[in-house]
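Format is chain and fold; as here:
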Amino acid sequence: MEEVRARFAPSPTGYLHVGGARTALFNWLFARHHGGTFVLRIEDTDALRSTEASVNVILEALHWLGLDWDEGPSVGGPYGPYRQTERLDLYREYARRLADAGRAYRCYCSSEELNERRQALLKSGQAVKYDRKCLNLSKAERDRYEAEGRVPVLRFLADDQGETVVEDLIRGSVRFENHVLDDFVIIKSDGNPTYNFAVVVDDALMRITHVIRGEDHLSNTPRQIQVYQALDLPVPRFAHVPMILGPDRQRLSKRHGATSVEQYREQGYLPEAMVNYLALLGWSLDDRHELFTREELVEHFSLERISKNPAIFDVKKIDWMNGVYLRSLPRERLAREAAARLEQAGYLPPDQREASLPRLEAILEQVQARIKHLGELVPWTYYYFTDEVQYDEKAVERFLTPEYVPAMLAEAVHGLEALESFTVEGIQAVFEGLRERRGMKLGDVLQPVRVALTGTTVSPGMYEVIHLLGRDAACRRLRRWAKSSS
């Protein structure tokens, strides 16, 4: 069997969309499963929209996901360069070959003329396609157009008889009538190639054996196959994966929430969870397995198990999955994540990051089972590092304004200050004794304490919180409310 060579070829016009990340992942898994080569190519010929910043964002997102490439930017390889803007001479050479073979011709039609003819076709109910006005221009006509200052594009002379069949590895045989395929532009007036031409040259010269991409590219495929055939280049195998839709079954977009890998990373999703969830958007092993290690995905991945039906992006599902991964995360790694986020939020000085790690590990022992993503680490931990607590107004009104609270908090402070050994057991004894003396329910004692210390009604066990806060900080915070509420 020939070596499998798969590729991911993003256009650097923004962030890496989750759909693009899923495509990259499927290609990476396919290559790794077959012991093949995964190629990264940057399709940056869109001069108006492509930016170096977007290139860096995409590369960083792929690194974060753990999708390493065997050939591509920063790695090199035998079929480079791996950026289209560095391959322009290749496109011009292959365009010249098509022109010399009579399969490409110069077109001088202006955008205004093309639009006028397009509108006329629409009004008459005919298919909108180029009418080949410039196919058989005389030399005199070409000279006249050029004297007018018209800069031509180069069009591919498509086969308009019969049909082009795409043998898709997911969808089976897909047939396209050639008469509906027009003579599309392959070289624009600025000298840059169009997508449908450049992708053929690149995939052929980079020896790509399998093109795995979104089904929105399926309609481009017959045009590309014709270019392969006209240049006598080997045609790769195609596999068009289902689209990713939102819960409303519309194409995934900003209205559904975060759509880029970078956004999910910033919100605190783990790369392990992201890879696992993306793999399940269109692929499955069976109805029982949802959690996979990267190694298991590589072992089991196959194109035969990819569905033809659209995949639904479910935020609740990825939240659940991320929570599962967080609960199994080594506490040392979680502590470092928390320290970085606390530092970024201004609660932890940079020079205290390393020293804070043992304490953070102890704090996270109480928190780890509760969080769904790393973005929740700061709300659950910040109050251990500052007295500037963010108080929930409704919680304050309900639990810190009753008449009995100031005296009770003062009594709690006295009990905590009198403890010889400031342990969880000793702290519990203080509040059990306070409850008995006042004849109150334990919740009526602890909820005001909880709000006074954390600003909220939800926290880990109160005795553990007080112990981790430390005697001085806990008493200082309780004393403030004992005074202000009196």
About this structure: The longest strand covers residues 163-168.
